[in-house]
Amino acid sequence: MSSYLKNEIIILACGDMLLADFYFDIGFGLGSLISEHGPSEIFKSVHPILQSGDLLVGNLECPISEKSINTGIHKKEFLASPEVIKTLYSEGFRVINISNNHISQHGLDAFKDTVNILENRNIAVVGEIASGNKKQKLIIKTIKGKRLGFLSYSLVEDHFEKSPSYYAYCPNISDMIERAEVAKKECDFLIIILHWGDEFIDHPSLSQVKLAHDLIDAGCDLILGGHSHIFQGVEQYKGKVIAYSLGNFAFSMPWKPTRATGVLKVHFNEKGCHCFSVIPIWINNSFRPIIPQDKQKEYVEKRLNNANNLLNNVNTTQEEYTRRVNKA
């Protein structure tokens, strides 16, 4: 990977990755395609993009394991084969978030497998709560002499375990702020990954905007959001970058708005974030990210622009926001 300037650090981030079959495509989802053809084709079309920065960050929306507490058809849902790890590594992923509402779907052993498989490939895992600890470890990656610190939290209800204690699940907001303040003292740049908000809506709630701003005020330099499955806007607040949701990246949702996404590219100089861009991406009929062309490109760019325009006009009431969520 390379940077444009000698001392510049470029972070690339993409959205949710389900490297397994979805609920509605058992037997012909991405997991089944991987079983049949191997994982090497998943990111092949966007390989040059993924190689264009210094650090690649992703959100893993499923465990990687051969173990499961489930049986029958439910064992195939949201459970990726360990063979995907080689591809994740070769494509450049070095930081993976596991704090999300599907990581516990196949039980604690599958979760532990996921962490071990990733770490054994030198991919840092963000969001794990080690046994006996209440606070997650700050993950630090050193690039060009700068310490990049990573934390992550899931603010989404876990439907598979009532109160999971092994990943950063639904923390108290004041604890998140305090942790950010402390973590900032241990690194040069602090990146927080958030699994939050509502699904299938193209802008954040007012409470999400407030939390993001509070985290920036506490010392965070970059916020990477996910869970909505639709790309939401990206803003700069006090010079820092907030991506409210990066949408999907490798996911078998057929609804057209969930297939228009982008790779976020954030440039850091000595003082922090100084600029960002979003590279348009389309998820094709084989559930793989590709570089869109022609009408697909026009559609994706329109979705990304609309998301930013909505973000710039987020002044809706909670009642109106709830109505939009229910409609979505």
Topology of helices and strands:
Layout: E1 9-17, H1 30-37, H2 47-50, E2 55-60, H3 84-90, E3 93-97, H4 108-120, E4 124-126, E5 139-143, E6 146-154, H5 173-184, E7 189-195, H6 206-217, E8 222-226, E9 234-237, E10 240-243, E11 248-250, E12 260-269, E13 272-283, E14 289-290, H7 294-311, H8 318-327
Parallel strand pairs: 1-2, 1-11, 2-3, 3-4, 6-7, 7-8, 8-10
Antiparallel strand pairs: 1-12, 5-6, 9-10, 12-13, 13-14
Observed structural traits:
alpha/beta, six-stranded mixed sheet, 8 helices, 14 strands
Please provide a written account of the structure.
The structure is a single chain. This protein is of the alpha/beta class and 328 residues long. The protein has eight helices and 14 strands. It has helices spanning 30-37, 47-50, 84-90, 108-120, 173-184, 206-217, 294-311, 318-327; strands at 9-17, 55-60, 93-97, 124-126, 139-143, 146-154, 189-195, 222-226, 234-237, 240-243, 248-250, 260-269, 272-283, 289-290. The N and C termini lie far apart (39 Å). 49% of the residues are buried. The model has no long low-confidence stretch (mean pLDDT 94).
Tell me what portion of residues adopts beta-strand conformation: 25-35%
Task: Return the average pLDDT rounded to an integer.
Answer: 94
Helix content: 25-40%
* Regions with little confidence, pLDDT below 50 for 5+ residues: none
